[in-house]
From TrEMBL:
Binds 1 FAD per subunit. Residues 235-256 are annotated as: Disordered. InterPro entries: Class-I_Pyr_Nuc-Dis_Oxidored, FAD/NAD-bd_sf, FAD/NAD-binding_dom, FAD/NAD-linked_Rdtase_dimer_sf, Pyr_nuc-diS_OxRdtase, Pyr_nucl-diS_OxRdtase_dimer, Pyr_OxRdtase_I_AS. GO terms for biological process: 2-oxoglutarate metabolic process. This is Mycothione reductase. Its EC number is 1.8.1.15. It holds the Pfam family Pyr_redox_dim. Residues 353-466 form the Pyridine nucleotide-disulphide oxidoreductase dimerisation domain. The active site is at H456 (proton acceptor). SUPFAM superfamilies: FAD/NAD(P)-binding domain, FAD/NAD-linked reductases, dimerisation (C-terminal) domain. One of its GO terms (molecular function) is mycothione reductase [NAD(P)H] activity.
Length: 473
């Protein structure tokens, strides 16, 4: 049995654990997939490298309302793809080589699972042990096992970005982040997009007003079909496929529909990689509903009886209900400290986790939705105040002729404490940052609005005006 001081399972956020404090320790870093994990290889980074050119192309098409006409975009998909993966694949390969070059780190390029409380075996049979084990094994794509799901034209986010050419017609299944961002990418670059979603709501975790506004924007851009569940995909023999779905027609009658496409993208969610770990061998508690590893606020993994498993830590998608890279990064910093300083534990801060959806327009959110805030106010015997400020009613939004953007802020009417912020509109992922800052540091709505200058006539005035629109006691 090979003994290490620390074993890390997963080279995504797990790889960033290795701060200088770990230089003197014998570390085993295990990853059976592509080195670097989801974000760099198949997640945040390549998707946003596609979102940007799609956004530029789409914005170009909309310049007519400003009195500017540009010609149709000539999109060179292979050039975009090769530029993106030329950079990304090199980062993964370079990161792997660097880790392998370190005398204190042993990299195992294979999957591993637990055989006992502190013991693991790799796929090739190598047995490993360490007093400190960090589980950072992430999540993976999940697709419904419908007939035709294994056809070569059917893709997931893992493969669709490497297509040989831009598809003329693409069907995207799902109504979450991944479906939304890829619908924007393919529509922006010029494919004919049909989005099929099982429920009648898009972006279900978002504030209902924002989700509804996004539904309107999406349906004005591509063919959005809500309330349809795909049941089978068949090969038409000419390179195309047909997706058959069941649902209800506009009269509410049970019905079926068929959509022909060159490519189908299944964006139907991700599941934590707990099942690959043989968690019962180490008595790791797994949440039965979500499949997430159960951890306490210090990221210590819990045993099935609810007690703490000393020396076993988890972070990121394998244990967090928020599958976001900034959450995994935060938890990695917490684990990097706690694993070496178990007598000075710091807790993860999960109070105000923001998120952004990189669509056209962008969406960004932090804190409670309106629905959650109303429930919160009922429980606490207080009232909430809200303001939805239109981007088009501040000077820069006016200059942009923006017709859809809103900045919605929600606060406790009695104290001015900010409870939530929800934006849809250009640059929302940037505009929300001062609101995240205010919530994180306890700055009230009025102090935030009046305690500083707001550059005129910047788009940030939409945040200022939203705050000033709140009716505080
Ligand atoms: C298409 C897409 C776009 C995204 N865009 C964004 C975004 O814009 N912003 C954002 O915040 N988040 C985004 N995310 C989510 C973000 O990528 C993840 O939340 C984050 O990367 C999770 O990091 P992690 O370290 O927990 O897991 P990962 O990065 O997935 O790392 C886990 C690693 O563990 C390895 N592994 C798994 N099981 C084992 C085992 N048994 N033995 C050995 N190795 C194992 C895997 O091969 C993998 O490399 C996106 C995700 C996707 C799929
Ligand atoms: N910008 C970002 O931060 C970003 C971008 C992409 C992904 N992500 C992360 O990745 C995670 C996974 O994204 P996702 O969009 O795959 O998941 P999701 O859970 O957000 O959405 C999954 C969608 O698939 C639908 N669905 C599930 N099973 C189905 C079935 N059998 N038939 C039809 N539809 C079905 C669901 O109704 C839902 O609309 C997200 O939760 C998010 O945290 C983040």
């Amino acid at each position: 049995m090979r003994r290490h001081d620390v074993i890390i399972i997963g080279s995504g956020s797990g790889n960033s654990l290795l701060t200088p404090e770990y230089d003197q320790l014998d570390v085993g870093l295990i990853d059976g997939g592509t080195f670097g994990g989801t974000c760099i290889n198949v997640g945040c980074i390549p998707t946003k490298m596609y979102v940007y050119p799609a956004e530029v192309a789409q914005s170009g098409r909309e310049l007519g309302r400003l009195g500017v006409t540009v010609g149709p975009a000539d999109v060179d998909w292979p050039a975009i793809r090769d530029r993106i993966f030329g950079r990304i694949d090199a980062i993964s390969a370079g990161g792997l080589e660097y880790r392998k070059s370190l005398s204190n780190v042993t990299v195992y390029q294979e999957y591993a699972h637990f055989t006992g409380p502190k013991t693991l075996v790799t796929a090739s049979g190598e047995e490993l042990t360490a007093p400190v084990i960090v589980v950072a094994s992430g999540s993976r794509v999940t697709v419904p096992r419908i007939p035709g799901i294994d056809l070569s034209q059917v893709h997931t986010s893992d493969t669709v970005m490497r297509l040989p050419s831009l598809p003329e017609r693409i069907v995207i299944v799902g109504g979450g982040y991944i479906a939304a961002e890829f619908a924007h990418v393919f529509h922006g670059l010029g494919s004919r997009v049909t989005q099929l979603n099982r429920s009648t709501r898009l972006l279900r975790s978002h504030d209902a007003e924002i989700a509804e506004r996004f539904r309107e924007c999406a349906s004005s851009q591509w063919d959005l079909q809500l309330g349809w569940a795909p049941e089978a995909i068949t090969d038409n023999g000419d390179g195309s496929v047909t997706v058959r779905s069941s649902g209800r027609d506009e009269n509410g009658q049970e019905s079926t529909r068929e959509d022909v496409a060159d490519i189908v993208l299944m964006a139907t969610g991700r599941r934590p990689n707990t099942d690959l770990l043989n968690p019962s061998a180490a008595d790791l508690a797994v949440d039965p509903g979500s499949g997430l590893l159960r951890v306490d606020e210090y990221q210590r993994v819990l045993a099935t009886d609810g007690s703490v498993l000393e020396g076993v830590w988890a972070l990121g998608d394998v244990s967090s209900p928020s599958q976001l890279k900034h959450v995994a990064n935060h938890e990695a910093r917490v684990v990097a400290h706690n694993a070496l300083h178990p007598d000075e534990l710091v807790a993860s801060d999960h109070r105000y986790i923001p998120s952004a959806v990189f669509t056209h327009p962008e969406i960004a959110a932090v804190g409670m939705t309106e629905e959650q805030a109303r429930e919160w106010a009922d429980r606490h015997g207080t009232r909430i105040t809200m303001k939805s400020q239109a981007f088009g009613d501040v000077a820069y939004g006016w200059a942009m002729e923006d017709r859809t953007g809103i900045c919605k802020v929600i606060a406790d009417g009695a104290t001015g404490e900010l409870l939530g912020a929800h934006l849809i509109g250009p640059h929302s992922s940037i505009l929300i940052q001062p609101l995240i800052q205010a919530m994180s540091f306890g700055l009230g709505a009025h102090e935030m609005a009046r305690g500083q200058y707001w550059i005129h006539p910047s788009l940030a005035e939409v945040v200022e005006n939203a705050l000033l629109g709140l009716e505080l006691d």
